[in-house]
Design goal:
The complex is a heterodimer of chains A (about 230) and B (about 475). With about 230 residues, chain A is an alpha/beta fold. Helices cover about 40% and strands about 25% of the residues of chain A. Chain A is globular and about 50 Å long. Chain A starts with a strand and ends with a helix. By secondary structure, chain B is mainly alpha-helical. Chain B has one domain. Helix content of chain B is about 75%, strand content about 0%. Chain B contains 18 helices and 2 strands. In chain B, strands 1-2 form a two-stranded antiparallel sheet. Classes of the chains: A alpha/beta (about 230), B mainly alpha (about 475). Chains A and B meet through helix 2, strand 6 and helix 3 of A and helix 1 and helix 8 of B.
Chain lengths: ~230, ~475
């Protein structure tokens, strides 16, 4: 569902992403671990077609994101670290607006159903987003993915700054999305969450994918050791 | 589709923004108050003027049996009908006045310096719709729109929107359209009031057409501010930078440049002071027939030429009263002198206008005000037209008075002759008619071109800002 082929990005002579090859299938959560500057966000930006790659290809649903920007964007939902929603609109209004941008006109009942499915309390649905916690805002993002039946979820540090309970809630939502058949790419610093939530884990350092692991085959402590070893190299 | 969603979302958010709402309510209240104040002033002025016009005519007709030349010195007034459009754009009307005293031998001055009058009209002096449209409405546009695009970048929404398939073009165009709609909605109640006032005052006439043209001019100016606001908001990275940049543009275009231009026009093309003007006229008047001095060199020469033409040696032998003829000769000479001096003043005004034309290239506010004044008929040209009409009436009236004296006074005893009540009652009445054309193309064209140019360039600026590739 999501594929990068020799994906490379240079900024002012510096290599941010170097020859990255990723394949993420439907129903898979791929956690991309790495320190700041490892190239995780740059990878996501290329998948979003924020800027074109210097070399290689980023593909979603078999289509190049640079050649089919609108088609590929229709199939994905992006949730950044701080999901920007309009503070003086309600959660439901935000959802309606963002769905409307892709031509999806939701009824009030559908808005409420999707937001509830994403874990938002019914009492919060019609409150302005300025009163929401970060976790509640992330749930609106997930509701957007549900409403749009997104094939791909691109998550950039989505649990950063969430309290443990909210982070746990979010992990459950990702499981839910995986069960719906979405291919999830989550960039994160959080080794514990990557091990708990991910199907596969990739470790990036200085733009290169250093290692790929199956989450089920490795313990928390081993993952930490492998990660640290790659960071040192 | 996407643009429509962006517009509707933006409008919902703006209507929920308490600061924008408070500003909109303030502007609307000020607009309504300014229209009501202007309309009341217009009514009072119209009524006072009608009364004064009636009394003035009555005084002329009922001045009793009098020597026609005494009546010429007694004088009368010419009144310029109060223009309902001064409610919206008073222009220089409040500085030039709406009446002119007409008397023998003399053309009176109402306005001396176009630049000074215009400068006065550009000051923060009175609460009028034109003041609000020049200074406050653009500020509202800036406050409502400066964050529109840049805040999306600051909050991370920009990238999120791009991820939804929204292009930068659609985003910027949607925001521009939303700000246009907000400005139009805020303008709408004023527009309705304006139509009602012009319609109720003068029916469906040229005033209503002029008001609609004024609306186009004001909206054109707002368009410039809307485009600049969205363009700047799209190009900068911080709201603070957008605000400071736009306020600087506002201060420069609305306050500083118009003042600099008017000062430059006044100092480069100086209009003589009133005393200086009349001194120069008096000097030139000594070069011709003096109606009050039959023994001046020119008066004697004129007398001799008349006597010679009629083949007589004494004015008592002439078949008409020589004094009446000489007064008319003097009046015509005086008119030529006055016309020549006024032509110089008008030429200076025209040079000042040329300076304004150059200034309006830099300041859309100046281009807008000068175009609006011309369309409203409250600029110096409208007043010049009135004074020219009044002068044509004055010289005609003086001719009637002098000819009456010439034809009816016996011999040289002009002083003892009196005209009756019927004569004065039959003298023509001054009725001023505004030019039928809606604007003076030669005067307004440079300003209209400037304003239109600003509108097009600012629209191009938005298009350029929308096309700019940006990584945020």
């Amino acid at each position: 569902m999501l594929k990068t082929i020799n994906l490379t990005k240079h900024f002012n002579g510096q290599t941010a992403v170097n020859d990255l090859n990723l394949t993420i299938a439907s129903g898979e959560i791929y956690c991309l671990l790495g320190a700041n500057g490892a190239g995780k966000t740059t990878t996501i930006n290329m998948l979003l077609n924020v800027f074109p790659p210097s070399a290689g290809k980023a593909m979603i649903g078999g289509m190049s994101v640079t050649e089919n920007p609108l088609e590929t964007k229709k199939r994905l939902t992006y949730i950044p670290e701080n999901l920007a929603l309009y503070p003086n609109l309600t959660g439901a209004e935000n959802l309606r607006f963002f769905c409307g941008l892709s031509g999806l006109n939701l009824t009030n009942a559908q808005q409420e159903a999707h937001l509830t499915e994403a874990g938002l309390q019914p009492v919060a649905i019609h409150k302005r987003v300025e009163t929401y916690s970060k976790g509640m805002r992330q749930k609106v993002g997930v509701a957007l993915a549900i409403a749009r039946s997104s094939d791909v979820l691109l998550l950039d540090e989505p649990t950063s700054g969430l309290d443990p309970a909210a982070s746990n809630d979010f992990a459950r939502l990702l499981e839910h999305m995986k069960d719906r058949g979405a291919a999830v790419l989550m960039a994160t610093h959080d080794l514990f969450r990557a091990k708990e939530t991910g199907t596969r884990i990739g470790i990036m350092n200085r733009g290169k994918l250093m290692d790929e692991l199956n989450a089920a085959d490795i313990s928390h402590s081993d993952l930490e050791q492998v990660y640290l070893n790659h960071m040192k190299s | 589709m996407i643009v429509r969603k962006i517009v509707s979302n933006e409008l919902t958010r703006l209507f929920r923004d308490r600061v924008v709402l408070a500003l909109a309510v303030t502007i609307l209240t000020l607009l309504v108050v300014s229209v009501l104040i202007g309309e009341r002033y217009y009514q009072q002025l119209s009524s006072a003027q009608s009364e004064a016009e009636y009394i003035s005519r009555l005084q002329w007709e009922q001045q009793g049996e009098k020597n026609p030349h005494s009546a010429a010195h007694y004088g009368t007034f010419a009144f310029k009908p109060v223009n309902v459009l001064m409610v919206f754009e008073p222009g220089v009307t409040r500085y030039t006045g709406v009446s002119l005293f007409l008397e023998g031998h003399r053309q009176n001055i109402a306005s001396n310096s176009l630049a000074e009058d215009l400068d006065a009209s550009l000051r923060f002096a009175e609460l009028t719709p034109s003041f609000i449209f020049t200074y406050l409405f653009p500020l509202f546009i800036i406050f409502a729109g400066f964050r529109m695009v840049v805040s999306e970048k600051e909050s991370g929404m920009y990238r999120f929107l791009m991820a939804q398939g929204v292009s930068r073009n659609q985003l910027v165009f949607g925001k521009t359209l939303a700000l246009w709609i907000v400005a139009a909605l805020l303008f709408l109640p004023f527009f309705v009031m304006g139509l009602l006032i012009t319609g109720l005052t003068s029916g469906v006439t040229s005033d209503m057409t002029r008001f609609m043209l004024l609306t186009l001019v004001w909206m054109g100016y707002f368009g410039v501010m809307i485009h600049l606001t969205i363009g700047v908001s799209s190009l900068v990275r911080h709201s603070g930078t957008a605000m400071v940049t736009l306020l600087a543009i506002w201060m420069l275009g609305s306050l500083l440049l118009p003042r600099l231009v008017t000062n430059a026009a006044a100092s480069r093309h100086t209009v003589p002071a009133t005393t200086e003007f009349y001194q120069a006229v008096r000097t030139d008047l000594t070069e011709g027939v003096d109606g009050h001095n039959p023994f001046s060199e020119h008066s004697l020469a004129f007398r001799d030429s008349v006597l010679s033409a009629h083949g007589v040696t004494d004015i008592n032998e002439l078949p008409f009263n020589f004094r009446g003829m000489m007064l008319q000769e003097a009046e015509e000479f005086e008119k030529r002198i006055y016309d020549m001096h006024f032509a110089r003043i008008h030429a200076i005004h025209d040079r000042q206008l040329a300076t304004f034309s150059m200034g309006s290239v830099l300041s859309p506010a100046l281009a807008m005000r000068l175009t609006a004044m011309n369309i409203a008929g409250t600029d110096i040209h409208a007043f010049r037209h009135f004074t020219q009409e009044a002068e044509a009436y004055r010289i005609n009236l003086m001719r009637e008075l002098n000819h009456d004296l010439r034809d009816n006074a016996v011999g040289d005893r002009a002083v003892g002759y009196v005209a009756g009540h019927d004569f004065f009652a039959d003298n023509p009445v001054f009725t001023y008619k505004r030019p039928s054309q809606l604007l003076s193309p030669l005067v307004t064209l440079p300003f209209m071109v400037s304003l239109f140019g600003w509108l097009m360039i600012s629209a191009g600026f938005v298009v350029m800002a929308a096309k700019k590739e940006e990584i945020v």
